[in-house]
Amino acid sequence: METLTEARSLICSGYDIVCSRIMDYTVVVCVPGDLSKSEMSQCAGLVCDGGAVDQKKVASNLPRARVLAVVRNAKTIVGLGAIKRVMRRHTSDVAKSSGYALDPAMSEIGYIAVHPEHRRKGLSGRILGALLQQRPGALFATTDDYAMKRTLACGQFVLRGHEWDGNRGKLSLWVKT
Fold first, then answer.
1. In whole angstroms, what is the distance from residue 137 CA to residue 144 CA?
2. I need a surface site. Which of 95, 101, 118, 155 has the fewest CB within 10 A?
3. 91 CB neighbour count, 10 Å cutoff
4. How confident is the model over 9-64, as pLDDT tens digits?
5. Which CATH number do you get for residue 137?
């Protein structure tokens, strides 16, 4: 049986090849205030279109994110991700739901979304990588999406705790220390 490290290496090796071939996309790291209202609306729409996050939460929390990584194809926003502001109550709820102890002051990576026409090109990995460069150290993420789980594993996040019910499926907790 393969070790976790060997499995991650096998999974991520093809992923790295895909990432190296991306030429038509630009990833820019910024704060929400750097984007226009229209651009923030596009970003919120991408996140909400995925169906995993409530529209009201996105409208409230995305503009207050610590940092965003925005992917553009030409001038069109086709993907994004965020390091969310610390939300102690939310973090405590995640810890309780997953059965895994988290520091309530730990930052969360979230809102990683890519427009359907631009998926399967390694963009979520580029988004995650850009965000990790901005915030080295302990972070957590939650997801119910297989492709995102793979991206997180490639980003050195480790599955912790147990799954719980989310808006559209079983959520899992991923932690990077």
1. 23
2. 101
3. 19
4. 434 544 443 333 356 899 999 999 999 999 999 999 999 987 778 788 888 899 99
5. 3.40.630.30
DSSP line for 44-106: HHHHHHTSSS-HHHHHHHGGG-SEEEEEEETTEEEEEEEEPPP-HHHHHHHHHHHT----TT-
DSSP 8-state assignment for residue 132:
H
Instruction: Give Cα separations from 105 to 89, 99, 100, 111, 166 (angstroms).
Output: 10, 17, 15, 19, 22
- CB contact set of 145 (below 8 Å; sequence gap of 6+): 52
For residue 3, being part of any structural domain is answered with no
Name the β-bridge partners of 109.
83
If one counts every other C-beta atom within 10 angstroms of the C-beta of residue 2, the result is 9
User: Which run of H or of E encompasses 175?
Assistant: strand 170-176
pTM of the model: 0.85
Residues of the domain holding 27: 22-176
